Amino acid sequence: MTPGRRSSTFTRLLRHGFTDPSGAEHLLESTGLGAVRDDPVLLDALGATADPDLALHGLVRLLEAQPDATARRELLDTLTASKPLRDRLLGVLGASDALADHLARHSGDWQALVTYEPRDLHRGVAEFERGLAEAADPVALRVAYRRCLLSIAARDVCGTIDVEESAAELADLATATLRRALALASQAAPADAAVSRLAVIAMGKCGGHELNYVSDVDVIFVGEAAEGADEGKALQAATRLASHMMRICSETTVEGSIWPVDANLRPEGRNGPLVRTLSSHLAYYQRWAKTWEFQALLKARPVAGDLELGAQYVAAVGPLVWQAAERENFVADVQKMRRRVVENIPVAEIERELKLGPGGLRDVEFAVQLLQLVHGRADASLHSGSTLKALRALAAGGYVGRADATQLEDAYRFLRSMEHRIQLSRLRRTHLVPEAEADQRRLGRSLGLRADPVAELNREWKRHATVVRRLHEKLFYRPLLDAVAQLAPGEARLSPEAARERFVALGYADPAAALRHLEALASGVSRKAAIQRTLLPVLLGWFADSADPDAGLLNFRNVSDALGKTPWYLRLLRDEGAAAENLARVLSAGRLAPDLLMRAPEAVALLGDGDGGGLEPRPRAQLEQEILAAVGRADGGEQAVAAARGVRRRELFRTAAADIVGSYGTEAQPAEADQGELVDLVGGAVSDLTAATLAGTLRAVVRDGWGDTLPTRFTVIGMGRFGGHELGYGSDADVLFVHEPREGADEREASDAANRVVSEMRRLLQLPSADPPLLIDADLRPEGKTGPLVRTLKSYEAYYRRWSLVWESQALLRAEPVAGDEDLGRRYVELIDPLRYPEHGLADEAVREIRRLKARMESERLPRGADPKLHTKIGPGGLSDVEWTVQLLQLRHGYELPGLRTTRTREALAAAREAGLISPEDAGTLDEAWVLATRVRNAVMLVRGRAGDTFPSHARELAAVGRYLGYGPGHVGDMLDAYRRTARRARTVVDSLFYEG
After folding, report:
1. What is the tens place of the pLDDT at every residue in 846-874?
2. Rounded mean pLDDT of 311-315?
3. Which of 104, 120, 122 minimizes the C-alpha distance to 112?
4. pLDDT at res. 640
5. DSSP 253
6. Sign of the C-alpha dihedral computed for residues 781, 783, 789 and 792 taken in this order
7. pLDDT tens digits, residue range 142-177?
8. C-alpha closest to that of 816 among 911, 738, 729
9. Could you tell me the CA-to-CA distances from 540 to 333, 513, 537, 550 in Å, in that order?
């Protein structure tokens, strides 16, 4: 050969797909393949495999393992003469290192691939049982199992059987293996076998007749006493047999293991007995089983042992399985289990996770099982453990659209084929797509992708995963639209009863009304109806994830009726990813936000991620600027304050929506983990909004009555939660009013003007309107309700000097100017600072008085019939406990510790911790309790649309509060227990610091 030129063999090998043609050329020349190295038939067959280099290397190892030259000659002759053997053997060698290893160890097993009879095309349990019959011990069973596996893999990689058939054969092989393993266990302990009846029930993929190459085989054991035997001793004997059978399959020997046998799907899981009687199983399922256990029983199938007992078990649990959809929170429980699976995937693996990740195999399986459970009670055609058979039955019955079912089946087949080939390579249990390019190349070629295997593989994988992600949830909801829409001829639709079943399973209390809403939203040929038909399957899923799906759907219909002809509304929902989900969350979370939205539906623009402003609360300066500008444009005080209240309503909606979305989370953004962050967001936003509204109202009243200048300087002092920047959605605005006559002004005229301003502000802010009223509460003023509404600064000074009580000093801890004359507000603060931060702290008598007041409030103000342990304001460990404890520290130490001079509870608590006045642990306990109590009050207002200090009594409202607080369906009890526990811990700290400190 001319130096520098490649041999013709090298070129041919390169053309046939070898990545290391030099190494392949060397193997062909230096081994027993010399006689056939130029045979084009052999090269073509090698080039057709997933990995020609691997196939050649495996063939060389197999030849070297032959016992003599005669055996090598027989192998080569058969290989070149028999196309079926050539394709099967080389196909396996090019796809599986592990099976190549097996053939090298058991050099005669290649003969299992020679036969090519009709019965060999689709082998079943009987054929596999014959293949395992001579295995007399666990090691021989492993060798025989791999020999049978070799036959499945050979026909799989050659395309003789498809992925559904190969999965079924793998399940049949597992069935035969379990039977042989149990026979070996029974032979080892004939006495145990004689006194007991043991049935092995396959679960999971084995039960569903869709097993992987390498997978745990899930089982449940049912045992009964043989006739005349003692039940207790029989169960012990059956347990020994079951345990031995599991070890035979699972333990590692010189031939490795077969697969783990997993019995953890049994009642009580690992903590329950391995073997139970049939009656014990039924008692558990009737009383204690969770939704996921009935979902698992969909695939229960008797496979080994006493098949009559196994059939009795399946017949007995079947009715319970098909009643599972009637359980409370059924759909939510199934979806929660799916989310938990995804959340447990390591972040580094989620993009490569073929089975459990978003758009993976489990999405298809969960969706199909969900629909089977909902409709299977009335339709026995859905009673299949096989995902693909069940999917086809769902499509035939109209429960799933046929086009959706076809796309989903294609995607599922492709993903299962990927999974099979990945596992076949090394016979390891994995669902991760390999990262190495060589492995991806082999995987792509094994699936018939030959032009650019790596690029084509990733493209097809992502395409099918996208289809699954798009369809797996819509699968449940789209047929509901078809039930009320015009369908193409021949297309099946949900019956009214099936649609009702599905709505009930989703948590709808009034399925008939839900169908009417769907019909109104999705019927017709308008652009609006077309876009809503696209959106509704996703929206229905988000509504179902709330505590009140009925309200979500009704509210969406109302918003769409109001805005449906507005082009930007439909464009917003269609094009801005966050808008539709945010809207669904807001509409189904309670009454307050939808009520605010329906008063001015155009505020829905805030829910987008474009130019609508977003959900980030606006700074007070911006709010005040907008309100003052609106007031300036208005004609008259009433119109001006109406404009200010309109801005307030819109911004209340923005804050409520941000709070709801942050509490629920979205698909793109998880729920806010820091609950204190959400409390601060609401408190700060509502307080700033209230201050800006008061500033605008004051401007409107002054302009309407006096022009540009009032005869007296006037300021508004925020008190209580308002001054502390801690207002909730339903809070009144606690204030004091201060005025100071201008130079040369008549004092009586100034006082009358100030009182007229207050009276008019209160009137205008409470006028009947589409906007929520803003109630002004001035009861914290000197002398309370009997004292004047407005005082001059001098009057305040005189009162505080002569008459001020300790409770008033405590109330002044929250005082902060919020509107009006800034200089007057500053001077008022200078006046009260010595009262609220006394130079020498509090006298003992003052401390005792504060404690007496607190104890009296606890005993007198709690509403009759209220549970004190769940009262967020006055109850033990509630807001009052925490705030009074913090305020006592401020009164005692505020003069010497500037950090305590704040109107905000959490800031003051943090400063006390930094100063060493309270331990970090106690500070954390009080902060947690205060945040939780505030969150509950906010939740009650959002859910009920009216304020409340305790948890709602109505079940659906209570569930909505729980959902807002992060508790899923069925966990209301956990929420109440957590509140009591948090409050109890806080009360212990309060007793120590407030009453004893």
Report:
1. 999 999 999 998 888 888 888 999 999 99
2. 97
3. 120
4. 95
5. B
6. negative
7. 999 999 999 999 999 999 999 999 999 999 999 999
8. 738
9. 16, 14, 5, 10
